[in-house]
Amino acid sequence: MNGPHLIDNPAELRPGVQRRRSPGGVPGAGGLPDGGSTLRGVSVIIRVAHSSDAAAVGGIAFETGFFGGSAARYFPAPELFSVLWAGPYFAGAGAGLWVAEDEQGVAGYVVGSPDPAGYRRALRQVALHRAWRVTPVAAVPAVARYLVRAARMPGPHASEARFPAHLHLNLLPRLRGQRVGDALLDAHLSTLRSLGVPGVQLSTTSENRAALRLYRRHGFEVAARRLLGLWTPWLGHPAEHVVMVRGLP
Ligand SMILES: CC(C)(COP(=O)(O)OP(=O)(O)OC[C@H]1O[C@@H](n2cnc3c(N)ncnc32)[C@H](O)[C@@H]1OP(=O)(O)O)[C@@H](O)C(=O)NCCC(=O)NCCS
User: pLDDT tens across 180-199, in order?
Assistant: First the structure.
C-alpha cells in the first residue's frame, strides 16, 4: 500500500475537512492531530487507506450498500459482503484507496481498480479462499437469491478499453453533506492520473441523486442507462441503473 499523500487543494472543502498527510499513519486513540477549524466540532481527514482499513471499508460498504442504507435487507451476511465488495481492492487489485476519518474512526472511502482483469482475478481469489469461512449457513438462501438475481440482471457497463478503471465512493450518514465526497473523489482521480490511467467508469442508479450531482460536478457523463428489476423485491419498484464515465487527460 502507498504511504500517506498530501493534496494541496483544500479550497472547496467545508470547514473541518482537511486533506492531509498523517505522519504516523492512523492517528491513535488520543484523537486526531491538529483539528483546525471545525464543522459542528468535528474534524475530518482524508488519507490513503492502509490494509488495516479493509474491515472498516467493508463495514461501510455494508452499511451504505442499499441506496445509502444498510445492505442487511437483501444480503444478511455482513462479513461476506465486506470480503466480496472491499476484499479485492485490498488484495492487490486496488489503486487510489482513500479513507475519510473523524474522531469516531473511518467513516467514508473511495476504492477502485484501474485493471479490470486484475480486479476479476482478485475477486475470484477472495470468493474462493475467504467467502466460505465468513458465510453463516442461515444466510445462504438469501445471499444466493441476491447473487443469482444480480447474475441474471447485470447493469450496463462502458468500454473497458477507454475507461478501464472503476470506483466506489461511500460515506456513513454522519459525514454526508460536507463535501467529503468531493475530497475523496479528487484524491482518487489524482492517483489515477498519476498512474496514467486513460479513463474511469462507475455504476450508480437514478435514485442516488446526491451521488449523481457529485459525479457530474467532477466531469462524469452518463454513458448508458438500463431499467432493471434487480432491486424490486426490496425497493418496491425497478431502478434505473446508470453507468457514468470520465476521461482522464
Ligand atoms: C453520495 C455521497 C458520496 C455524496 O458525498 P457528500 O460528501 O455527502 O456530497 P455533498 O457534500 O456534495 O452532499 C451531497 C448532497 O447532499 C446534501 N446533503 C446535505 N446534508 C446531507 C446529509 N446529512 N445527508 C445526505 N445528504 C446531505 C447536500 O446538500 C448535497 O446537495 P447538493 O449536491 O445539491 O449540494 C454521499 O452522500 C454518500 O455516500 N451517500 C450514500 C451512498 C451513496 O449514494 N454512494 C454513491 C453510490 S454510487
Answer: 999 999 999 999 999 999 99
